[in-house]
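User: ok so my PI wants both of these folded by tonight, can you help

Assistant: No problem, let's get them done. Here's the first:
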Amino acid sequence: MEFTAQQIADYIGGTVDGNAQAKVHTFSKIEEGVEGALTFFYDPKFEPYIYQTRASVVLVPSSFQPAQPVQPALVRVDDPRMAIGRLLALYESMKPKRTGIDPLAYVAPTAKLGKDVYLAPFAAVGDGAEIGDGTALHPHATVGANAKVGRDCILYANATVYHDCIVGDRCILHAGSVVGADGFGFAPTEEGYEKIPQIGIAVLEDDVELGANACVDRATMGATIIHKDVKIDNLVQIGHNVEVQSHTVLCAQVGIAGSSKIGEWCTFTGQVGVAGHITVADHTTLGAQSGLPGSVRKPGQTLLGTPPIDPKVFARSFAVYKTLPDMAIQLRQLQKELEALKLRVES
């Protein structure tokens, strides 16, 4: 399917410089542009590529002024990244959706399937489970007994929704992700560890996405809740009874211990660790590998380190930290000189 530069501009609210009838049928990075491709640039460091690319149409910021002639048609928009995201979503939505139940899929007699559901070979839907209209289960995806999965969801290969858990509409569970495994609950005894039954559930609200091998544990009692539009990256661990408010982003290898409450519009970058039973205020950003042992009460902060502090303070502290070995040598030398001076004074 082809689109002209003018059609693209009309869809995303942009304006065209150059050939408004230039046609595109694919996407590319600007440095790898080919004829018939749509690409974009927003960072000035990529500007040199715009004079070299063979792409037919380029999305650029509205304020962009070329320093030399350009060959592709330019579509000017306020935010090229947001615009390319809308176009990619449109492109994805136009792909034909598979429907139907493969003979090798398993559907329990008491399960309920909506319209236009797709079940791939070896997908499984348990007793009393409900699958909403237009949802797709890829090979070995499993929805347990009495679980509910909403409309237009995608469960990729080996994604698992345990019994009784709830997944809202338009959710995406990537390969190997798990909703509702037991929370990590054990009571130490003289003989070892006694398992504490995890009788609660896990809930994903609408438009949540789980990356590959991400895990959201079921609650000990009650529910672990991931609110609407939360985006969770690969290899993230959410403990039992955690609650993550809407629009929060959790990047790769984040771990959140049980019963913590995370606010709205937070961003936890890679390998952030959060202790249990704490609260994090709205609009909190935690830098990579930060460790959070206690609550963050003030909203809107950006923090880094363990325990997290202001990034500028962290940078100054780390500059000192790097010099500690030399400072230790100097301190020992000063101590020796001070002792020698004391002996001289006393004598």
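One down. Here's the second:
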Amino acid sequence: MKIQYKNTILVFIIGLILIAFDAQSQRFPKPEFESEYVQAQTQIPIPRVDALEYLDVLVLILALSVITWLILKKRSRIGVFWISIFSIIYFGFYREGCVCSVGSLQNIALALFNPGYKIPLTVLAFFIIPLLFSLFFGRTFCAGVCPLGAIQDIFIWKPMKLSTWIQKLLGLIPFIYLGLAILYAATSTDFIICRYDPFIGFYRINAEFSMYVLGGIFLAISIFIARPYCRFFCPYGVLLNWFSRISKYHMTITPTSCIQCKLCENSCPFGAIDIPDSVKLKETRKDTKKRFITLSIIIPVLILLGTWTGYQFHENLALVNPKVRLAYNIYDQETNPNIITDPQYIEPIEIEAFRSSGQPVTQLYSEANELLNKFKIGGMLLGGFIGLIFGLTLASLSTFRYREDYEPNKGNCLSCARCMDFCPVGDENELLVKDLK
């Protein structure tokens, strides 16, 4: 584990070197002429632009394949660590965090609801490929291929164990974030995942100061609370969680059979190990029936309540859209003329630009009203989805699964392979197994 911390500084040094090297090949803009000369269109496309995009897809597949082999076959934590270093350098600093699988779900949402948007094949590949690997092998993408998770992982030093209820409560945030991201992408409002990505500014060295602060806070928190963004914010992690739950070849803590040595019990910094239940008594049929009836009532009520809440707040959600916000501001001017006559009033640039465009206000109101209708439906769906998630979370807290072995939770396990090093059981060391028994 010491290698992990010693190489933290090395990662950033190498990354800065790559950035400096890339800066030497300056991308000059087209020259601007004061005359009426019009630059001719080039007949040959820029060399290797498309090839580099497909190269990224190939590197993604290779990285996922290698790390999956390291986890499932070699059971090597150190191998996973070095793949993380590679991902930080290549997908992070060199490719500047783009294309990003986490942000690609916004492109998918936009393509589904906007027929005029044609999604690039490489973006589609970055969205689908990690999900396919997660479907068969668990969240190996999270283990060390995702540059957002990898940069947090190398900062883990003294992780704290969070109680179950806190993890469940914070675990609701990614679902809300996912719903909002889809809503704003589907309405062509904004790509909020990319806008508020806490690490993309580090990789591109061009973020606003506030985003540097946000990223620094996440990395500082990572020292004591392992991967806070991955566990409690990442919307793409929700999809990976769902797919991983049915994976057939998910990593295991022990290569053979659990011997109940308890050495791995506190080995996972993410709290993703399911501990055997000490209580062997099964739930009575009467209690099972009572719990089922209770949940059958609570979950639909939460869905209806969420739907109603989403409807009530759809205008607030819509105000994030620039066109809707502009329409509201102009409407305020027309209905409150005293605002304009105020000596301290300064007309927003957006309104000034709109008036200079010559577009009729009625057309703006019509387009804004159409967007409001979309947000009305989207807000209701978002609220109902959040209500459903709340209900299912309550159901998971009241459902008990009796198990005898220490097992990784397939949904929450990030396949980092840390727990494997704590297991004394080995394929070639059967004598040690017998001694421990």
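Residues 1-31, 39-48, 429-437 have pLDDT under 50 and may be disordered. Residues 361-398 form the longest helix (38 residues). Good luck tonight!
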